[in-house]
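Long-time lurker. I teach an intro course on protein structure, and each term I like to show students one example going from raw sequence to a predicted 3D structure in token notation. This year I'd like something fresh instead of my usual example. Would anyone be willing to generate the tokens for the chain below so I can use it in lecture? Attribution to the forum is fine with me.
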Amino acid sequence: MTTAMHWAFDNTYARELEGYYEPWQPAASPDPTLVALNDALAGELALDPSWLRSDDGLAVLVGNTVPDGAEPIAQAYSGHQFGYLSPMLGDGRAVLLGELIDGNGNRRDISFKGSGRTPFSRGGDGKAVLGPVLREYVVGEAMHALGIPTTRALAAVTTGETVLREQGMLPGAILTRVASSHLRVGTFEMANHHGSPEHVRKLADYAIARHYPELDAGDHAGFLSAVVTRQAELIAAWMSIGFIHGVMNSDNMTISGETIDYGPCAFMDAYDDQRVFSSIDTGGRYRYANQPPIAVWNLSLLAETLVPLIADNTVVDDGRRPAETSQDEDVRKQAIDDAIADATRRVEAFAPQCSDAYLRRFRAKLGLQGKDAADQQLVDELLSIMKLNQADFTGTFRRLAKVLGGEADAVRERITDVTTYDAWQAKWLDRLGEQDHATTAKQMDAVNPVYIPRNHLVEQALQAAVDGELGPFEQLLDAVTDPFTERPGLERYAEPAPDGFTDRYVTFCGT
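-- Reply from a regular --
Happy to contribute to a lecture. Here you go:
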């Protein structure tokens, strides 16, 4: 087969948003080798996995060959990083190959991460190394298997180069990432910081058409609410599986509501709501418990960019909109004040929406049917017990279903303060009431995973891959992409890290 294989590209971002990118070609890779290919995702994209494994396919996956219809670009955006505005960020080590229409008619971005320097590299080398590329691959696919909106990995390829990092010279690699888009809060910040309300309007109308077609064109207030709702659901989902993103800068929050950029991310073993894993988050800004407030912070930045647009749609006393009136400063000021109040209410809706989504997910984790006013307290008490006893987050919830199956000590055997736990378990069983235990346990097992990307196993797999052994990575990937089915022989993938591991464990961005 040849590079003439059909790629159904339709590149609306490059066509409609000039000024938000620079045309750019990926750097050449001297000796590419395929490390991992996601056959199932390739099928969704209407791409032939066998062709992607060929020399011609591999040349495309590292950017050595650009397929017909692609328009490679480096996207531009701003962003608040650890609370401070960086007015120009952009794809410093990524290139968007184009937008592919998949087999179901959905639009999907195909991008390379680690494909060399771009105009936005700010002195960086634009490269990626194998370990972080495989981390993003395995964690993203685990998130997808857990039912959490996420960018995904199509392929991981080594480039034949070595790249200098703190740990020394490491094998260079490129990740082919798939997303419903790469629009971010930071994209809107760039339009607002470097452009005008008309630039923001054009971007917002594009985002509405692409991600929220159920909204009327120009409904910028509704657009803000829709993004708030998706992020509330996403963050609640993260919390329900003990996931810590690690770098929730505004340029890492997507407009689509997908999880993006698995750099210094990690899953908790022992529950601790103050847990931080990122090597650069020395102040704990992005700790587990602070993820909902940080989401509000990011959404408020999006709201700021949309206020002038919302004001233009505000009906003033005479029935007209400010944009339709003469340049009456008092009218405009009132419209802006009203828009700020409206946008503030919409962002503030995040907290109750996220809380509702959080409690809904934890009710399911505990097998609770219906609603009871004391359910939040029941959840909080269990989490408190888990924290004080350093109980494994994932394992505890999975073992609760075994209690319903007749294993009375399934959880308590891993708890030090059994008296407090026993009191809680009695309250939980009382709350379950007349529910059939076998049915409830089955329902719990459908939402409480057995397998997650355990940090110690991820590190073992990545180091083995760097050393040339892919078996541990492939075995871990197999476990976490079928996370709810307990399988003989995979017991080690369900166990927390050895004592002492988590206390010294940190993760890195990979740049």
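Some talking points for your students: The chain is about 40% helix and 15% strand. The chain has a mean pLDDT of 95.
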